[in-house]
């Protein structure tokens, strides 16, 4: 390892805590291995004539070594991963391509420059050619070419062969982003965690890490420059905290807290199979928010009683074009069959038109310039505008309905006319399906998201038109407090305990119950142990949350009495600001849940 | 040999990879011509840079002892709608 700070430097190392997004829980203490992407930082050196052939050899040596790495990687993967193998095959061809190899050699010889610089030049010529390609799918192959070039850059910089294989010490991999091959290497036994600069909770890295059960933190900016290979860190994949150069005491403390988390998880496991109701038998359905089929195993593992929110966007964004009816049907059918007899709530496409058209360029380029996308052509408005897309989603949903218990959820409804338009369309589709002899279940429920203030104020009118309400607090808070949570200057004003938010929840619940329809809530509040008791007291029939937090919320519910919850909610509703709400909770929750809150 | 690209995602990485393998496997020089542009199938990047989307008309050329066999295999691959 070339830059082991602890050896080069005699100053004491200061412990430092950084924060990213925890995407796969667990705490690990290990040294890091930084996978650098340094293609853009290749320095320029002019070389004397007698050094040129040596430089060419250094380059061809790196190409050959990169090829050996890829072949080695290919051999390690048995035939179970056909897709991955074919990626490696095309990477091998790219690596040996004349545009990569011969071009770089020519640049070294002609300009008397170092190999890194020449390769960067060759790469930018390739990029220029690919940038001209209209077809987005083929154009994106440049990413693969870059991954291949990065491997060569790494070898030119003196990285050892296959750094991960061979070393037996536990490692945490750090990278800007993980390539498909890095992801495969993550299977190596000595990789104990991941840290990346890019990515969110649904990034490739996050999904792979969760499925491997390894802690991961993503979205930590500048991670590859802050950390050097060999640095000792503590990585907390739950909170997203990363401690560089931890003190021995800190390591012990983190390991202890990991042990406690695991013990607590074991204790919580006992709640998975218990009914979700209060001590006095008042039931609240605890269901899961998910966005892809891969999460179903977690849904079942944590004892969820249905899917309270299936975000249907994934099918629209992981392919090269929008999905057809049959593809959607396959997804919905699997969802319903897996969860039956529990209900599955599928939210229809909930995206901004701008995002959608960026992904699948149509002729509506003007949408790119929407001034105010949060108030623009999105969600149900977009679906009603792009009717063909909406028709195929609704048809797929209706056809899937015979495989379980389906609830269709319409996002961002703000006026009754939108509901009526959807209903008219659905009636049309039902006739169509009947003509085609395709069966539809008789008990399909249609509900709406309550996430716009107008929907709350008119909830009594809406309640007469739908089968259920689902309050989406993330958007409701944003729209009613006029706060963009992504804006660092106002994000601190985003406040779930704003009395306006709590009163709107109450108003929606009351309007729903007056019309005998159930009301659920599916924002982040639902899975927050501080909010959940309040929400239960406000009378919600269902709370939908990340699958992993269900056991914890269920434990709270099972230690509650409905009368106490209602009393708590009543007092909360009298608070004039969010501080009062928090003060009240700080006093009341430890009384209600001594086990939960006296630990800390 | 004149052909129309059949794959719905065009001649993408995996198709181009197979083309290179066909050329190497038959020991021939396999070329694709699209209008004025020409690419040799041994270079995956050249082939990708032709940006052959579904429906593109191309001409396939082969030189070598097994040219016929290579052309047949390449044509089957390029005109197929499904991924290899």
Question: What's the layout of helices and strands?
Answer:
The complex is a heterodimer of chains A (600) and B (84).
Chain A (H helix, E strand, L loop, with lengths): L4 H4 L7 E4 L1 E4 L2 E9 L16 H25 L5 H15 L4 H11 L3 H17 L4 H4 L2 H15 L14 E5 L4 H6 L5 E6 L7 H9 L3 E3 L4 H4 L5 E5 L4 E4 L3 H22 L15 E6 L5 H6 L5 E5 L2 H4 L7 H15 L3 E5 L5 H7 L19 H7 L1 H14 L4 E6 L5 H20 L9 E6 L2 H5 L1 H5 L4 E4 L1 H9 L17 H16 L4 E3 L10 H6 L4 E4 L4 H9 L3 H12 L4 H15 L1 H4 L3
Parallel strand pairs in A: 3-4, 4-5, 5-6, 9-10, 9-16, 10-11, 11-12, 12-13, 13-14, 14-15, 15-16
Antiparallel strand pairs in A: 1-8, 2-6, 3-7, 7-8
Helix pairs in contact in A: 2-3, 2-4, 2-7, 3-7, 4-5, 5-7, 14-17, 16-17, 17-18, 25-26
Chain B lengths: L1 E3 L8 H14 L2 E6 L2 E4 L3 H6 L7 E7 L3 H13 L5
Antiparallel strand pairs in B: 1-4, 2-3, 2-4
Helix pairs in contact in B: 1-3
């Amino acid at each position: 390892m070339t830059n082991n700070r602890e050896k080069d430097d005699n100053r004491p190392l200061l412990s430092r805590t950084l924060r990213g997004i925890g995407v796969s829980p667990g705490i690990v203490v290990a040294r890091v291995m930084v996978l650098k992407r340094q293609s853009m930082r290749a320095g320029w050196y002019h070389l004397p004539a007698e050094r040129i052939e040596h430089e060419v050899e250094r380059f061809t040596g790196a190409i050959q070594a990169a090829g050996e790495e890829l072949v080695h990687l290919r051999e390690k993967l048995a035939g179970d991963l056909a897709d991955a193998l074919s990626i490696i095959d095309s990477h091998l061809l790219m690596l040996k391509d004349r545009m990569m190899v011969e071009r770089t050699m020519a640049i070294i010889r002609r300009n008397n420059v170092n190999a890194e610089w020449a390769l960067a030049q060759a790469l930018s010529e390739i990029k220029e050619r690919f940038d001209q390609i209209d077809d987005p799918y083929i154009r994106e192959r440049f990413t693969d070419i870059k991954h291949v070039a990065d491997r060569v850059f790494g070898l030119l910089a003196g990285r050892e062969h296959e750094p991960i294989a061979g070393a037996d010490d536990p490692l945490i991999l750090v990278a800007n982003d993980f390539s498909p091959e890095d992801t495969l290497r993550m299977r190596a036994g000595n990789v104990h965690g991941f840290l990346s600069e890019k990515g969110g909770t649904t990034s490739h890295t996050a999904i792979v890490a969760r499925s491997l059960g390894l802690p991961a933190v993503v979205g930590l900016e500048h991670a590859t420059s802050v950390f050097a290979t060999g640095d000792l860190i503590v990585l907390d994949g739950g909170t997203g905290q990363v401690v560089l150069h931890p003190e021995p005491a800190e390591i012990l403390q983190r390991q202890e807290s990991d042990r406690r988390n695991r013990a607590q998880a074991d204790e919580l496991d006992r709640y998975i199979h218990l009914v979700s109701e209060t001590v006095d038998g008042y039931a609240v359905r605890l269901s899961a928010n998910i966005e892809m089929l891969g999460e179903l195993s977690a849904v079942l593992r944590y004892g969820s009683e249905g899917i309270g929110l299936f975000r249907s966007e994934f099918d629209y964004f992981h392919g090269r074009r929008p999905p057809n009816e049959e593809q959607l049907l396959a997804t919905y059918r699997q969802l319903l069959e897996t969860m039956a007899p529990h209900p599955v709530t599928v939210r229809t496409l909930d995206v901004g038109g701008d995002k959608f058209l960026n992904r699948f360029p149509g002729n509506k380029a003007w949408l790119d310039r929407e001034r105010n996308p949060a108030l623009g052509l999105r969600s149900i408005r977009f679906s009603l505008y792009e009717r063909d897309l909406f028709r195929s989603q609704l048809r797929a949903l209706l056809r899937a309905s015979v495989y379980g218990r389906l609830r269709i959820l319409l996002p961002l409804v703000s006026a009754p006319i939108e509901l009526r338009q959807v209903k008219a369309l659905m009636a049309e589709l039902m006739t169509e399906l009947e003509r085609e002899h395709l069966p539809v279940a008789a008990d399909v429920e249609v509900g709406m998201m309550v996430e716009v203030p107008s929907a709350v104020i008119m909830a009594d009118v809406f309640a007469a038109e739908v089968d259920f309400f689902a309050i989406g607090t993330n958007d409701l808070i944003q729209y009613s407090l006029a706060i963009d949570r992504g804006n660092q200057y106002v994000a601190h004003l985003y406040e779930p305990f704003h009395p306006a938010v709590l009163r709107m929840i109450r108003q929606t619940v009351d309007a729903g119950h007056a019309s005998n329809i159930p009301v659920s809530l599916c924002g982040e509040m639902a899975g927050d142990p501080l909010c959940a008791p309040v929400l239960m007291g406000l009378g919600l029939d269902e709370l939908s949350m990340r699958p992993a937090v269900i056991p914890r919320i269920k434990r709270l519910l099972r230690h509650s009495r409905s009368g106490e919850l209602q009393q708590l909610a009543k007092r909360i509703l009298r608070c004039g600001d969010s501080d009062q709400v928090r003060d009240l909770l700080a006093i009341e929750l430890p009384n209600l849940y001594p086990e939960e809150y006296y630990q800390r | 040999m004149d052909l129309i690209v059949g794959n719905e995602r065009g001649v993408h990485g995996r198709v181009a990879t197979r083309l290179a393998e066909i050329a190497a496997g038959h020991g021939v020089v396999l070329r694709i011509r699209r209008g004025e542009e020409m690419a040799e199938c041994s270079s995956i990047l050249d082939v990708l840079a032709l940006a052959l989307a579904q429906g593109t008309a191309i001409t396939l050329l082969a030189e070598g002892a097994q040219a016929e066999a290579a052309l047949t295999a390449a044509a089957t691959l390029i005109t197929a709608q499904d991924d290899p």
